[in-house]
Amino acid sequence: MTGGTGRRGFLPPQEFAEIDSTNEEAKRQAAAGAPEGTLIWGRMQVQGRGRRGRPWISPPGNLYLSLLLRPERSPATAAQLGFAAALAIGEAVLPLLPPTVPLAYKWPNDVLVGGRKVSGILLESQAAGEGRLDWLVVGIGVNLVSFPEGTEYPATSLAAAGADRVPVETALEAVAGRFHHWYQCWREQGFAPLRAAWLGRARGLGEGIRVRLPGEETSGRFVGLDGDGALLLEQGAHRRRIAAGDVFPAGG
Ligand code: BTN
Q: How far does residue 3's CA lie from ligand 1's centre (Å)?
């Protein structure tokens, strides 16, 4: 990381009392030439976005941030940073939780607290040609005090899980700090250490799962991640590699 970075290892956060979407702002700034490490923080979002075009309801009190990165890697390789973001959230949140409440990672990028989704990660990128990225935006939302009802995968908040209350600023500092750690680790050592840490708390490893793919639903036994971060699904004698999809418990 170049000079001028703050304690989190990134640039000091640009705070917005209200914003459309921190990812949109990071993308606007990326297009205008903003540097690696630009950090956008919104106290609330009015057009927060989730994966697959879903809205991300973003009232005040929760954490909404986006990081602008310019890793000199292919888009597929840079997508591994979704695992860095999940690990960062997990490590920021774990010390706040009562010891009886489990924390687990659900492929590809969800963090589950007590079996419910507590956060979301949205990666967006622009290619620069020759298989390289121009920029990558890592958007992170963490339900600190509230969560939406009626979501397809049940949600929760840290408050509902009985976690110690912390100011949003403290959560921002912790998540950005842990992300910086994993980002550096990935740049220096590749995906292997992230893969090992993620698998150490993976939800449902060795168990039956359902996977929703574009235009198809399939099921099998979740047996691990390949060296790139794709999910490995055992289906009878075959192993299927899945690069993108939504995972649910079998029969759930
Ligand atoms: C998901 O669907 O699980 C991903 C949700 C990502 C939400 C975060 S909040 C900060 C950033 N800005 C957005 O509009 N989305 C991401």
A: 28
For 85-128, write each residue's pLDDT tens digit.
Answer: 999 999 999 999 999 999 999 999 999 999 999 999 999 999 98
Q: Closest ligand 1 atom, CA of 45? A: 14
pLDDT at 193: 98
Q: What are the DSSP calls for 55-114, one per residue?
A: B--B-TTSEEEEEEE--SS-HHHHTTHHHHHHHHHHHHHGGGS-TTS-EEEETTTEEEET
Angle at 74 between CA 72 and CA 78, to 5 degrees: 80
Cα-Cα-Cα-Cα dihedral sign, residues 101, 107, 141, 35: positive
Q: Distance, CA 205 to ligand 1 centroid (Å)? A: 26
Burial class (CB in 10 A: 0-12, 13-18, 19+), 252: exposed
For residue 150, pLDDT over 50 is answered with yes
Q: Which residues have CB under 6 Å of ligand 1?
A: 21-23, 45, 48-51, 54, 56, 64-66, 120-122, 139-141
Q: Which long-range contacts (CB under 8 A, 24 or more apart) does 204-209 make?
A: 204/106, 204/247, 204/249, 207/249, 207/250, 208/249, 208/250, 208/251, 209/233, 209/247, 209/248, 209/249, 209/250
